[in-house]
What we know:
Pathway: Amino-acid degradation; L-phenylalanine degradation; acetoacetate and fumarate from L-phenylalanine: step 5/6. Belongs to the GST superfamily. Zeta family. Residues 1-32 form the GST N-terminal domain. The protein is mainly alpha-helical. It has helices at residues 17-27, 38-55, 65-68, 70-95, 107-121, 130-140, 143-148, 158-167; strands spanning 6-9, 12-15. The protein is built from 8 helices and 2 strands, in the order ββαααααααα. A two-stranded antiparallel ribbon has the order 1-2. Strand 1 (6-9) and strand 2 (12-15) form a beta hairpin. The N and C termini lie far apart (35 Å). 23% of the residues are buried.
Amino acid sequence: xxxxxxxxxxxxxxxxxxxxxxxxxxxxxxxxxxxxxxxxxxxxxxxxxxxxxxxxxxxxxxxxxxxxxxxxxxxxxxxxxxxxxxxxxxxxxxxxxxxxxxxxxxxxxxxxxxxxxxxxxxxxxxxxxxxxxxxxxxxxxxxxxxxxxxxxxxxxxxxxxxxxxxxxxxxxx
Length: 173
């Protein structure tokens, strides 16, 4: 489908976020992306799928938004992200600690951060989602999340990189 992410292992591409995360969990289980116990694992998968299947596809840049048109895309994105975040906030009220499920980073957290970035891109009022915002803030403090941010990548356009590092109060070089 010519979409990201795609992970290439031994010449074999693996696409789609959840498939990539499941591969990483199985191939590199330390640190784990899923909790030890079955019910907790199911809750992480529920949160992950709420984001990856229930929210993200409806505001996808390459598939949905071109059909909506420039004049309606922000309204469309806000509507579907708000709808999804209402459900996600309720779900997280039952599972969250410091992160989506307790105090350990899981695959749900890996999916939450880019969706919050999308919400900000669509000017979603994040004050309506205090728990999502709190979790995202905690995750953004972690070095791995700072390094993985799209604006921190070597192929990021320089103007976006400078904007990102300035936001962190750092120099890009």
